[in-house]
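Hi! If you just cloned this repository, the fastest way to understand the data is to look at a raw example. We've pasted two of them here, unedited. The first protein comes first, obviously.
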Amino acid sequence: RDVIEGTAKILGLEFTVIDTPGTVAEKQLIAPARKAMKTADMCLFVVDVGNLTEDDLIMSRFLAKSGFPTALIVNKCDQLDKHLTDAQMEALGYKTGWYVSARQKRGLQGIHTVVHPIHLAAERRRAVVQLIEQQQKNDRHDDDDDDSVRGSSGGGGGGGGGG
């Protein structure tokens, strides 16, 4: 299936959601995720509590190796007693996950506690990058000014003097 993109809003925090294909061959699984990560601040890695697949394990290993900010969201927890086992969590490489039922809209507001700090960190990172880029631009401009001052010093070279 194709990548699906949309906008979500949780407690006033608006963000873009990029849903990449789930059950496909490894290359087809990783490529859309890698592309989405180029513009994303974080990954909400969503798995089905009752159907942990080999693709989920492949994707979790990819995300772990990437070092990309990722939170595990465990969906289809329509009953509060549905959770991943410790062995499943270990296989995915996570100590905790956020349990939700998208169908019943349970636990979704709590995702804000996962998304918000990473969103703020990404905003700070973007601001720092902008400051650095602006400083580099200013430094290049200053260097250009220095070159024009040196270049207009009248040339010459002889020093004259004699004696």
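Ok, and the second one:
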Amino acid sequence: MEPITLKLKGALLLVTLLCVSSASLQMSWELLPGGLTVVSKGLSGVWGVNGYGYIYRLRTMAPTASGSRFRGVFTFSQVSSGNEVWAVTKADLIFKYEPLTNTWQQIGGALIKVL
């Protein structure tokens, strides 16, 4: 079996795989510049925030895994992936990701961290 390598341009991605067969699985890791400071994996996929406060989402439907960056005026410090995706900016503003419009909706209030 060939090693599986997942690359996320501009960030380091750590992945946990669950193997249900008895076949051996090898993984190789490649350090890419940029680095993610936060990684969250849930029902809404794998999301991360890099040192510049940009949010990335892992795209796994392509032949090779890749990341897409969300552009905007805010810089984020936290992101959490579950049934929904929530994020907090460096100014403690709260945002919820809207997948149908591919946008972030600001929610009233302030938070320091989302889990």
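That's it. A detail worth noticing about the second one: Confidence is low (pLDDT under 50) at residues 1-22.
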